[in-house]
TrEMBL record:
Superkingdom to which the source organism belongs: Eukaryota
GO function terms (MF aspect): identical protein binding; pyridoxal phosphate binding; transaminase activity
Descriptive protein name: Acetylornithine aminotransferase
Family: Belongs to the class-III pyridoxal-phosphate-dependent aminotransferase family.
Portion of the full sequence shown: 108 to 558 of 560
Cofactor(s) essential for the protein: pyridoxal 5'-phosphate
Keywords noted in UniProt: Aminotransferase, Pyridoxal phosphate, Transferase
Amino acid sequence: QSDFQALRQLGAKHITKGLGRITEGIMVKGEGSYVYYDDGRKYLDFTCGIGVTNLGHAHERVSRAAADQCMGIVHSQCSIAMHEPYLRLIQRLLPVMPDPSLDSFFFWNSGSEAVEASIKMSRYLTGRQNVICMQGAYHGRTYGAMAVTKSKTIYSEFTGPLMPGVYSIPFPYWHHFNLPPTTPTSTLVEQSLYQLDLLLAQQTAPKDTACIIVESVLGEGGYVPTPPEFLQGLRQVCDKHGIILIIDEVQSGFGRASDGKGLFAVEESGVKPDILIIAKGLGNGFPISGVISRSELTDKLKPGSMGGTYAGNAVSCAAAAEVLQVFHDEKILDNVAARSQQLFSSLRALQSSNDLGPYILDVRGKGLMIGVEFVTPKSTTDGIVPDVGVVAGAPEKMASRVAKKCIEKGMLILTTSVYETIRFIPPLNVSEEDVKKGFGIFEEAVREVVR
Ligand code: PMP
């Protein structure tokens, strides 16, 4: 205990203040849907390390696959030799791709790096420079990824100039047009696609535009599912002008935003991405991401133009290959469908209740990527106050207060976006009982905050 005390002090002094944190203390163990701290605290984890540990913490089969791999090749470097887990992973990914044309793989470590690689590839393949992204989007922390991130200014303030050649259009979310939440999706999609037409006519000509990058569910921008008609509209524009369509499923992929059938949220739309970006749930905590495209496109890349020391690390690939096997063996998508329905119906019942309903503006999402947005009459007088989590001195929003209460009551949960949104990201194999427990904690927290 005293050693942990010393470590806590060391952390307080020596970890950069640039990191925010929603809990104090030292996480020492994770098991299934729960995590444990040095002082004996136990939390139900509805964050999954931001949508990563989708099969729960320390899934035995995944950890075992990684440990076994450690006794073989840990690192080979992709420019020196292929290794078996790289190939096994491709073998398992091929049949679950949203479209069979996605047959060319490049593995990286993080989502941000995969975003960088996809932009680089698009520029090279088209010979064009400009990139179009979405207002509200989050694609990562590196310079290119930060340039196409439009969800909060805190990620890039005082750090510019960012990568040039980036343009954005409003993602079809009612806030972005200052319209009421009851606005039909078709109107929002029409508005966004109109802005895209305008952008291509006024600011970046199609012949200068390399790619459009979009998330299948707007994640850090508010947990808003991307309407299938919007993705179809983007596809049409890309086809018309020879622009590459990049679909970012870093957070929504691997069953997180599944309708119980496919692993990827884009599947509902029938849209074929030119480049699909994956990460997070793929490795269940082992760092790995992927840039997946068509060989017809990637055959044009020069050998040696892509690479990276740890890209496609053998231990991470072995863990990821096992993740996919577990998805199949443990029928994870069936659980996603059942638990999604359970959580949605509890949250919607709360939204229609007389006492707490008036505080809940919207319950939305897909699969187990669910956002609850609160009503804040005050936000109209204060303007939009970004929810920057735990930054000292930041004005506390209702969503942050509810999240803090949940944590006090034993559940880890996060907010998202500059609006009043709480996000539910439980493990995809979470039990019925734990969803009930998590919802109960949330309900109590909301009740105490509005009291
Ligand atoms: N894209 C999306 C949609 C994300 O949600 C994230 C991470 N939250 C990223 C990219 C960046 O991934 P990473 O943090 O692994 O760099």
